[in-house]
Amino acid sequence: MGIFRASGMAAGLVAGLIICVILFRYMNKDKKILTKYDERQEMARGRAYKYGFWASMATAAVVMITDVAEISLASSFTKYFFIMFVGILVQVTYSIFNDAYLGINTNKKRLMIICIIAGLCNLLGVVGNIKGGTFIVNGVVSDAGTNLLCCILMVVIGIELLIKDSMDRKHATAEESGD
Amino acid sequence: MKNLRMKAARAGMDMSQEDLAKACNVSRQTISAIEKGDYNPTINLCIAICKALGKTLDELFWE
């Protein structure tokens, strides 16, 4: 059973990767395959990845301790995904608030649409699992917990981008009036 | 340290931060950070800014 489950998960990851590639190409329709960042953004992103890495390490340590203590809150898949989720969240949050998330050639509107679609798809998965009674199995969050984490990530990114946009508008107004 | 000379040169050319950013192929926030003194640009970016504003390196970045 384990090998079939692992094969199914691998197939799901490959499918997800293909969808990401398609969405990424849609986001960069202006034929510039890679998102361009300027030098300041590259430095900020470097710091963001560093903090994300250490956040993942800290989360992995916590997960290891809970495993040793035999505290079972979620399935293995969800626990490992949570480690990645924390790292990604830290990296994205630092990047957004240091103006290093959106590249020079990124279309903000397209990105928001993709975030909304990805969030809704995952939300559908969560709702489906809750309705089917497969979200929590034997008092433990099942693999469907990954859909919830993805949904939360998309929502948080969207909210942070909106907050940053609002802050930028206020700063831009203040700077232009000070000119 | 704030770069008021750069800000003055930009204002003299009647350019917004966004205009200068596009001319130098960087983000608006990077130009803002340079003017506020929060970021020290590399020599390549300094040269690009000087070319966009029609000034020399000494005029904009030397202390």
Task: Report what the structure shows.
The complex is a heterodimer of chains A (179) and B (63). With 179 residues, chain A is mainly alpha-helical. Chain A has one domain (36-168). Helix content of chain A is 76%, strand content 2%. In chain A, strands 1-2 form a two-stranded antiparallel sheet. In chain A, β1 (136-137) and β2 (140-141) form a beta hairpin. In chain A, α3 runs parallel beside α5 (145-178) and α4 packs antiparallel against α5 (145-178). The longest helix of chain A is centred in the last third of the chain and has 34 residues, at 145-178. Chain A starts with a helix and ends with a helix. Chain B is mainly α. Chain B has one domain: lambda repressor-like DNA-binding domains (434 Repressor (Amino-terminal Domain)). Chain B is 67% helix and 0% strand. Chain B contains five helices and no strands. The longest helix of chain B is centred in the last third of the chain and has 11 residues, at 43-53. Chain B starts with a helix and ends with a helix. The mean pLDDT of chain B is 94. The chains are: A mainly alpha (179), B mainly alpha (63). The A-B interface holds A 38-41, 99, 102, 104, 168, 171-172, 175-176, 179 and B 7, 11, 16-17, 25-30, 32-33, 39, 41-42, 44-45.
